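Predict the 3D structure for this chain.
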Amino acid sequence: MSSATLTPNSGSSSVLVFDGVKMGARILINGQEIGTAADQFRRYTFPLSPSLLRAGEGANTLSVIFDKQVDCGGRWMSCTGGWDWAPYSTTSEGGAATFSKGIWKSVYVVNYRRTHRL
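Done. Predicted structure below.
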């Protein structure tokens, strides 16, 4: 499991973005699951509703839990283990070695304000 704190930007809407998660992860904010990541080749975005977030510096906890129960459908990069330069690890999915799991690209929050056309 990986975790970090985040602070909402008041008066704006927010989206949590994962550029790369390798894979089979449950994404939680303050203990509430907001989605899963099952394909390492995809960018994931999760809206952060105001009812989900708490006010204050570092008041919100992002948790990423890697869970064998998340069906990944075999979508992982084959060169991530078992080659001469990348040894096998102990993870598997449906009986096939999946090599490793983890956050391998950026994770960030995008804040935006809705505008209205006149």
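Residues 2-112 form a domain with the Jelly Rolls fold (CATH 2.60.120.260).
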